[in-house]
């Protein structure tokens, strides 16, 4: 579907939902989705069929146009294009040749499983149990691969020119590669646009972090239309701040205070942790930067000889750890930690937690993409108190984020 068709589909779905009309019937907004899925499923089965024949003794068979079939369902009729082969040996599983009636509500199950990222084995077992229709995991694998173009299209979609806040953090997964299981990091970029709505800008797989990796990611964001980032919140990955400023030199960078605290406490003896944390809170919970710096000096005087590496880390990173002191409390709450993207990760984990090692990078991307699209549907309102926050940002970043008070909308 084109972007315009998707927009029209959303508008139609909302209208029908509010009026109580069927979304999956003949004229329902979701009918095109069902039709598209059924046709893609049949194409995947045909590709698998021709591939199997090519490996066997029936080489030479080819596609031979398409026919039409109208399937009756509990919600109305659905007309689909059915692929045909020259030798007429193609026997589809998902819609048999002589099948004219879909099992009640099967379309809802298909669309649900298509977007849930369930394992191929689970999907196959569910369909067989519920509808007495067998679909092999091999065929299901081909069907789910039809998501790949959608993943790539989503990864390359145009972005808004300005994002107020970006959070960047990683999830870690096991992926099979060349017969070995490797640990890979999946970095997700979560942003707040000028309307105050959350959006996942992209996800990127890397075996190791560094300036070169992040430079490629940020360059891609720039090529997709993102020209300015007001504030970027990171977990202090090596080379990341430098990469940001090489593409977005005006961006304010805030290192995650929570990550810094976690890393610091790893090197503090358990017997000292309670007292150390009491003194450390005076630093990052101070009302002003001057108060925080005074508390940091006191921390160094008391603990510097015992834990010099910990204190040195706070001093070396202080400029980017303390950036949030320049903002009011509502903005500080948003940027002092990467909790926003970590909350997103927890929702993704609900889908991926039962997985072992993914078969390849794309298998991982497919599942996280599907989970992301579901999660984003819940982000249908601006952040709390966004009207107040965006006004403060417009003043702080004058000329980079302007407000049109006549329409109460932002512009750039």
TrEMBL record:
Region (Disordered): 42-86
Record-linked InterPro entries: Transposase_mutator (IPR001207)
GO biological process terms on file: DNA transposition
Compositional bias per record (Basic residues), positions renumbered to this chain: 60-71
Composition-biased stretches (Polar residues): 73-86
Keywords: DNA recombination, DNA-binding, Transposable element, Transposition
Keyword Magnesium (UniProt): no
This protein's record includes keyword DNA-binding: yes
A Pfam family assignment: Transposase_mut
Entry's Gene Ontology molecular function annotations: DNA binding; transposase activity
The family this protein is said to belong to: Belongs to the transposase mutator family.
Functional description taken from the UniProt entry: Required for the transposition of the insertion element.
PANTHER family membership: MUTATOR FAMILY TRANSPOSASE (PTHR33217:SF8), TRANSPOSASE FOR INSERTION SEQUENCE ELEMENT IS1081 (PTHR33217)
UniProt protein name: Mutator family transposase
Organism of origin: Salegentibacter salegens
């Amino acid at each position: 579907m084109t972007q315009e068709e998707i927009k029209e589909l959303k508008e139609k779905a909302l209208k029908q939902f509010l009026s109580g009309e069927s979304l999956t019937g003949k004229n329902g907004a979701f009918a095109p989705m069902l039709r598209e899925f059924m046709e893609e499923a049949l194409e995947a089965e045909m590709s698998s069929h021709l591939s199997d024949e090519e490996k066997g003794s029936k080489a030479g068979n080819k596609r031979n146009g398409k026919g039409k079939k109208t399937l009756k369902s509990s919600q109305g009729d659905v007309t689909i294009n059915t692929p045909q082969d020259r030798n007429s040996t193609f026997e589809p599983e998902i819609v048999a040749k002589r099948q004219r009636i879909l099992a009640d509500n099967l379309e809802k199950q298909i669309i649900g499983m298509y977007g849930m990222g369930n394992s191929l084995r689970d999907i196959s077992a569910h369909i067989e149990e519920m509808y007495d229709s067998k679909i092999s995991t091999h065929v299901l694998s081909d069907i789910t691969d039809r998501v790949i173009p959608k993943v790539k299209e989503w990864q390359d979609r145009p972005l808004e020119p300005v994002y107020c806040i970006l959070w960047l953090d990683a999830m870690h997964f096991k992926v099979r590669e060349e017969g070995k299981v490797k640990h890979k990091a999946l970095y997700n970029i979560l942003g707040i646009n000028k309307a105050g709505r959350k959006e996942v800008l992209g996800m990127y797989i890397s075996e190791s972090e560094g300036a070169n990796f992040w430079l490629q990611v940020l360059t891609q964001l720039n090529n997709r239309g993102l020209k300015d980032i007001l504030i970027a919140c990171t977990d202090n990955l090596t080379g990341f701040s430098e990469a940001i400023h090489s593409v977005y030199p005006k961006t304010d960078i805030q290192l995650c205070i929570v990550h810094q605290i976690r890393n610091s406490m790893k090197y503090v003896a358990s017997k000292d942790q309670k007292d150390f944390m009491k003194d450390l809170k005076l630093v990052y919970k101070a009302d002003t930067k001057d108060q925080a710096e005074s508390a940091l000096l006191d921390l160094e005087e008391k603990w510097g000889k015992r834990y010099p590496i910990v204190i040195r880390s706070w001093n070396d990173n202080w400029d980017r750890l303390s950036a949030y002191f320049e903002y009011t409390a509502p903005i500080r709450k948003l940027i002092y930690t990467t909790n926003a993207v970590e909350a997103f990760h927890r929702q993704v984990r609900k889908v991926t937690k039962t997985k072992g090692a993914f078969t390849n990078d794309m298998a991982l991307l497919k599942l996280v993409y599907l989970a992301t699209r579901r999660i984003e549907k819940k982000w249908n309102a601006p952040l709390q108190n966004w009207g107040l926050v965006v006004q403060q940002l417009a003043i702080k970043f004058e000329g980079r984020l302007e407000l049109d008070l006549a329409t109460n909308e932002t512009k750039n």
